[in-house]
Structure formats: structure tokens, C-alpha cells
Input
Amino acid sequence: DVQLQASGGGLVQAGGSLRLSCAAFGFTFEDYAIGWFRQAPGKEREGISCIKNSDGSTYYADSVKGRFTVSRDSAKKTVYLQMNSLKPEDAAVYYCATNLMTARCNVVDGTYSLGSGMNYWGLGTLVTVSS
Output
């Protein structure tokens, strides 16, 4: 079965760091991209980062560029999101997801989304940032 398992959320002070992990199961890791999304209460879900596992190319939303870094460990079939300089507005539930109909990160007009296809989502992990 295809599964994505996100972990690593928690409570951190503003200016601090957290590293999220997304472990992938049930598909050929190197053949697809895995993305990170977040959703804060009362706000729409936002695609913030993506990594194309075949070549390591990445995408970042402007809201996290320069502070967050996405990476992968193919041996562990895991994608990481290193989050530095966290701000209160980064507080959200963070999800990892993949579309098994495409190998690339679906970026349209500068915005990342999974697009249509065979989409799989992990359960979210909560990030709380205190000011």
C-alpha cells in the first residue's frame, strides 16, 4: 500500500528550527516528487516545497524561501523539510504528499500543487511557533 508518514512537528519558539520527515512506502521513491503543504486554521492549504526525487530539483514558495530546505535520502526513502528562522505565521499542520501520475513538481504560475492524478497524502504533523 502507498503510504506517506510525516513526523517531526512540535512546539518551537520564534526564530527556532524544526526538521520534518516524510517516510514513503509502497512506490518507487526515485520515480516521483514529494511535496510539503501546510494549512493553518482558517486558511487555505498552501504548497510550500517540493523535491523531484529523480534529480533533486526543488521548489519553494516565496513564504519559506531562504528559511526552509527540502532534501531527500533515497536509501531511507525519506524526504526532509528543515525549517529555520520559524515565525508565528509558520504555525500550521504540515502534510507531505505525492502524485503518482507524474515525476515532477507541478508548478503553475509560480504556485505548487499536486495537480490531478493519483494523489496520496500523509497524516499531518502540527507545528506550533510561539512568539
